[in-house]
Write a structure and sequence with these properties.
267 residues, alpha/beta, 2 domains, five-stranded antiparallel β-sheet, 7 helices
């Protein structure tokens, strides 16, 4: 049973899907399962393998898994079993403590443009546990150059058409030409991303906005686009700009202010 649970967790991690293991870590009184008993639960609360006793205890644990998945934080929970368990048809007494271990899915980072800036953004993002996807319409810029990243070469619009973009996805548009930035923006601006940023001067940004309107595209989500991209931390080299961009992505992810730690209350 244990090997089956490990196998399931491994498969979910390979598919970049969150999953949880619930383990009994303490008990007092009556409970059909011993300390160390575990079960594997998906993000919707479905038990995939194992059991910690069935009935009301599993119902409470499954509900707590769903809640813990929202913040992707592992937690310990205590359940009072001093009541009739109609689902088990038995009288339970005492308490059970469980540890809910959340195996997180990686956040996705899509980098559109594999030039110097895109390369350094990928470099800074990998240690932060992002699933990095980097693309360019030009041949030879990505193949074999990005360890542990998904790489794409070809028509950017076609590639983006096949990409899954959700609320855990950050997107940076840093191609080498305005036309490709514009094409990428058209394909992503109305998606349910967490963050969308585009490099550019004020003139380029205004031109992109005006073209969206003239081409009949919606600009309802224009205010959600971070452009110019990055935090104002100084420096103009590709490495320094990339650091500023990744810092802004992290700020957006954790919904922080960007203030110095000495200016905010820190526990």
């Amino acid at each position: 049973m244990e090997s089956k649970m490990i196998e399931i967790i491994s498969e979910y991690q390979k598919k970049n899907q969150p999953i949880a293991m619930v383990t009994i870590v303490g008990r007092e009184g009556c409970n059909p399962r011993k300390v160390g008993t575990a079960m594997v639960v998906d993000e919707k609360g479905h038990v995939l393998s194992g059991s910690i006793g069935g009935g009301i205890i599993e119902k409470m644990a499954r509900d707590d898994v769903v809640e813990a998945m929202i913040d992707c934080v592992s937690v310990e929970k205590s359940y009072d079993l001093s009541h009739d368990d109609d689902m088990l048809g038995m009288k339970c007494t005492g308490h059970v403590r469980v540890f809910i271990k959340i195996y997180k899915s990686k956040d996705k980072l899509i980098i559109i443009g594999a030039g110097h800036l895109g390369k350094h953004i990928a470099y800074y993002a990998k240690p932060l546990n992002y699933e990095v996807h980097i693309m360019d319409h030009r041949q030879g810029l990505t193949h074999g150059k990005y360890e542990d990243a998904y790489t794409y070469e070809g028509d950017i619009e076609d590639i983006l058409e096949e990409m899954v973009i959700d609320e855990k996805t950050s997107i940076v548009v840093v191609t080498h030409a305005h036309i490709y930035d514009y094409e990428a923006l058209v394909k992503t601006i109305d998606k349910p991303y967490r963050y969308l940023g585009m490099v550019g001067s004020k003139k380029k940004i205004k031109g992109c906005y005006d073209r969206l309107i003239s081409d009949g595209h919606s600009v309802d989500n224009w205010d959600k686009v971070a452009t110019p991209i990055g935090l104002d931390i100084g420096g103009r080299t590709p490495q320094e700009i990339a650091l500023a961009v990744v810092a802004e992505i992290q700020l957006n992810k954790y919904k922080r202010t960007g203030k110095l730690y000495k200016e905010v209350a820190v526990d």
